[in-house]
Task: structure prediction
Amino acid sequence: MMLVKRVVLRFEPLGRRVKARVGRTVFEVARDSGVFVRSECGGKGLCGKCRVIIRGEGSVSPVSRLERKHLTRGELKAGYRLACQTEVLGDATVFVPEESRIEVRKIQVWGFERRVTLEPAVKKFYVVLPKPCLSDVQADWERLVDQLRKKFGLKTLTTDVEVLERLPRVVRRGEWAVTATVWNAEKIVDVEAGDVSSESYGLAVDVGTSKIVVYLVDLNSGDTVAVGAIENPQIMYGEDVISRITFAFQDSRKLKSLQRILVRGINAALEEACKKAAVSRRNVYEAVFVGNTAMHHFFFGIDATYLAVSPYTPAVSEALNVKAEKIGLKINPNANIHALPVLGGFVGPDAVADILSSRIHRARKKQLLLDIGTNTEVVLGDREGLVCCSCASGPAFEGVHIKHGVKAVSGAIEKVRINPSSLKVEYETIGGEKPLGICGTGIIDAVAEMFKARIIDEYGRFNKNVKAPCIKEENGEKQLVIAGKDETVTGKEIVVTQADVNEIQLAKAAVYTGCAILMKKENVHPEDLDQVFIAGAFGSHINSENAVFLGLVPDVPLRKIKFLGNTAVTGAKAALISTKIRREAEEIVKKTRYVELGAQPEFQSEFSKALSIPHRDLARFPTVKKWMEDFKQC
Result:
């Protein structure tokens, strides 16, 4: 046998000591030990964002070609390395600078909630059983079932052996007073001594590509008693779902790793919520899961490979009911996990939840619903029927692939304004902190404001004739300086580059193309739209005027644009507290037609035209066209 040599890495400023096998990369060691180092490419050396400082001469591999591409000579001299390219050879100290740390970000946890009639699948029933005697030797189980039938009309009840194992002691401890927890009026999932019918809780779970949000809900009242939120820990395996599917495709163990780390993240958010409300996790008897189709498959441990391969079919689309113990969710082991159905492709249960919350499927007039994120879902329709699609908008809206892009963390620039006359740049940061970088809403504002100020043209190119102190050139590329060196946390300028503008053009074009193709299929024009709903964490903070100017959404009066917040989790909550809503979800699936954008003959043409700001066909954006004409006259 060959001896595996291990060394010790000390991660600062965390003060974490980790044993590592020689030959592994610093990124792999950090990821596997829970030290989160920023990466957009999943450790492939493509993004250059996993910068660390190595202290310990001769303790790591030589500088690679990719590192020389992403790091300056000055940075290399100062000890900067890319964690994903640096192999461990000996004991070393790894300092993770602020720009490379994954900070706690501002996660959108609240969303519009529709009123629903309280009708949960899980209910608790308190009964007092007649004590057995020599003339009445009926078994404990049959005694309980008989009383539940007589008092509450519950028939044909079943249970699991785990409940039967506990039943004899429970009924005697409670002196034959017992509370039975029943799921769907057919299965007893728990028994407890005495009357604890008031302690009944459920979980609404929204798993996004980049974040996880859970609502802890009192099933007796329908009230949300606590909320938990966390970054999706799968982010270490890639910022987008395709990167993660590619990782899982390598072998079944990789898929299990993705499932395990996702469930661990949900459990962490669950624990946070339970601690806030002082609720025992054993009293959580059901969870309703929503997420895009890839997250759905990862959560249940289902192979998601064929979602990424034409014709992009999911493994299953119907609603699922799975025992919590099977998945590893740390609630009552006999609890049920209900997943809303999949609509098609990457349009998963989260889109169904969005529809449930917005009630677009009950609208009398045409409405458009967008859940904007790394994977954007678009739904168009009314009570007569719906069409939907998924847009590969990519992670640029999360600050990924942007030179100084960051998530919506404290210190992220989230709003930008440019005076069109003086070209003076003003910004606001999350929490009012010193700027750390620029997040998605900030970069949307920046590009739209650059267009309004004519710093860039309709093709996204910097205008050579515009001169101002905020516009500089580096390595032959023009940049807009948002914040100067003396203003930022890092001591470096925060800029918007030509490449950043192009990334936003690609992302916004993907979203608008989805809208345009669905509207064309349904013969709907912008003026026909009664409402445009924008859902999702990112969408809730967009400047609606800039969204129109950029060409992200159709040109409609701003009063028609409504921000709904996180309707995925509120839709999951609605399904948690009402079985009627679950039946409604099934009806939505029947009346919704999924459109695969890549299969549409006009896709490339529409996408190409949508790359312009706001669009190559200005007739589609009359508001912006008029503004441009007025601007020329000034």
Remarks:
- Residues 357-395+505-633 form a domain with the Nucleotidyltransferase; domain 5 fold (CATH 3.30.420).
- The chain is about 30% helix and 25% strand.
- The mean pLDDT is 92.
